[in-house]
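To the wet lab folks,

You asked to see what we're planning to order before we commit. Fair enough. Below is the target structure as tokens, and below that is the sequence we designed to fit it. If anything looks off to you, flag it before the synthesis order goes out.
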């Protein structure tokens, strides 16, 4: 996984979800998945 270092020194993972032509349900799932990843790094 790639990371970027923020100005405050925190390393943040680079995650990307393409949302072109994605259903509303799939997009909602992507957001929830991203939130759960964020919680595990917090």
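Sequence we intend to order:
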């Amino acid at each position: 996984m790639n990371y970027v270092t923020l100005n405050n020194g925190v390393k943040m993972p680079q995650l990307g979800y393409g949302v072109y032509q994605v259903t509303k349900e799939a997009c909602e799932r992507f957001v929830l998945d991203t939130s759960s990843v964020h919680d595990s790094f917090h």
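Structural context that might help your review: Strands lie at 3-5, 11-13. The longest strand covers residues 3-5.

Thanks,
Computational group
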